[in-house]
Design a protein that fits this description.
CATH superfamily of the largest domain: Polyphosphate kinase middle domain
CATH topology of the largest domain: polyphosphate kinase like
Radius of gyration: 27 Å
Number of strands: 25
Oligomer: single chain
Distance between the termini: 39 Å
Largest sheet: 9 strands, mixed
CATH class of the largest domain: Alpha Beta
Amino acid sequence: MGLKKQGINRDISWLAFNGRVLQEAADEENHIYDRLRFLGIFSNNLDEFFRVRVATLNRMARTAGNKLKMHMEENPEKILASIMSIVLTQQQQFEKIYRDLVIAMEGKKIHFKTDKQLTKEQKIFVEAFFEERLHTRIVPLMIESIPSMPLLRDRSVYLACVLGHSQSAMMHRYALIEIPVGDLPRVVVLPSAKGTKDLILLEDIVRYNLPYLFAPFGFDKFMGHLIKVTRDAELDLDNDFHSNLIDDLEKGIKNRKKGKATRFVYDKQIDANLLEFMMKRLSLNKKDHMVPGGRIHNFKDFMDFPREVFTDINSRPKPFVHPLLTQPCRIMDVISKKDVMLHFPYHSFDSVIDLLREAAIDPAVVSIRVTLYRLAKDSRVINALVNAVRNGKQVSVVIELKARFDEEANLMWKKRLEEEGVKVYIGLPEMKIHAKICVIKRREFNRTTQFGFVSTGNLNESTAKVYADHCLLTSNRQIMADINRVFDCLERPIPNLTGLKTCRTLIPAPITMRKFFQAQIHKQISLSKRKKGGSLVVKLNSLSDDQLIHDLYDAAKAGVKSSFVVRGIFCGVMDQKSFKKQPQAISIVDQYLEHARVFIFGEEEQKQVFISSADWMVRNLDHRVEVACPIIDKEIQTELSHIMNIQLKENEKARILDAALSNQYVVPEEGEPWLRSQVAIHDYLKNKEYTIESRSH
């Protein structure tokens, strides 16, 4: 490695990305419902950032680098200080946006009511709601009376209460109540006057009913303020083949619940003595990430804000089935003649389910092999695989148990699959299996044919409705042979990745992907120096790898035409005077989460197009099993190139990725029409016509 760091710190760059999410919440052109959802997304993102990245930086700050199994940052304390400064600034912006949204909602006669603002009818409703649905779900903790502070759950909110009596100073106690969000909705619609909608938050229903809980014990004064703890969510696993990964994971998940606090958020109006008491009992000090906030925490619940509150929401276009895969049809017959690219969420994920279901019931199919990373809660993918086993197929699954925050779910899926007779492999202890691949083997009349897919996103029908990804359905023999090589490596008693070197079409990480992409960049540099063009288009979630950034700088200095669409972390500094040709670097944050990885090298007849599951980060290129797949079909090459051209012309939701992290919007030049790429891509795909022509492999 040995390269000097090339640009912006990854964590500071990530906070700039979350700032773009906050911009969407602030954008008055967006519907109030969507703006509230963006506040929820911002809050959820920040929770995960503190659980993972801030926790990691805290570990770095506490421990010498040679004792850690991680890539050390040069000055973690300085980065943490910068993070805290940015987070506090964003928190102030967040609170202003929310206040503005409350005013905007009131203009539409939609009102948030506190526990002090209820009408007589609403009081009756709130009392009944508490008695019937809430009362049995909460158990107040009298925290002064118990020897040790109860473990506050990560991602939950608590009502910290001060209880007293108007006639006795001695009657003074503190209590803690966990708000059971998840069991019940965070936002509750109240009985309302005609033409209005009144809402109340679940914690305000609890606040209103504090007398119901505590008056029997002699208290007549009640105050309640929200608090929230965010904990270190990293799992300490023993990366040893001789250790039991399942036991390690289960132990790690339990320990995660006890992880060191990385952030303590509290209502800035909280009673000062209660705050001091909580800090002492939680072993917090002012050096910890103490974040004074507004009256409401855990805005992540606003991601599920009740849509029925609004009557003027324009429905998003629904996903549509790819024209070549409209049912009834045999998908394997279609892709035996032509590769098909699905573009989610524009195309329906149902086609992937249809392919797996078809394989499950086709008498000629003998086996299915697939990787699984994150699955939907009620996964139809799992259902199809289980039914395939019941129909006598050999089904093998490589499931990544270490998929962050999905560990428990994936352990459950592993057990379910094994109970049904699926052969389950759990990959390697020291690296994640992040490739999204599948191969279906069919044998008929002594002839074997294979079908499958390579995807940039997870096999998750829920997220496929909002994540923009690409999935190549193919029967290409070379691609299928390489997918089998990947599975052959992963399904050994002790997986051995050296076999990935034999891949001839797919580009696997951690074996050859880094060198391959470096070679592609150098090829474009050579073409540019010889005045024969030289261009590259790169779409990623994150770009932070120093080696590749260094190569991209060399490309810009050589005059290679370079374009980047990067949603999240972008550590490159692309506005340097030494560059012969200024790269275009933008980020698009809109209704759908831009999740795909696409690479286009060269132009016209020399063009090479790839999709991948991997970002250009050290973790993806060197510490995960990933694949990049060439797009061989010329029509799909053109299709992907056209989609990327649309995104590069985006001027409504695109921000410029500059060294100042300014998040300035791209502004159309005079006379240039406004273009919102997600709308334009939908229209392009909806109107596209396809023909099937037989092809030879």
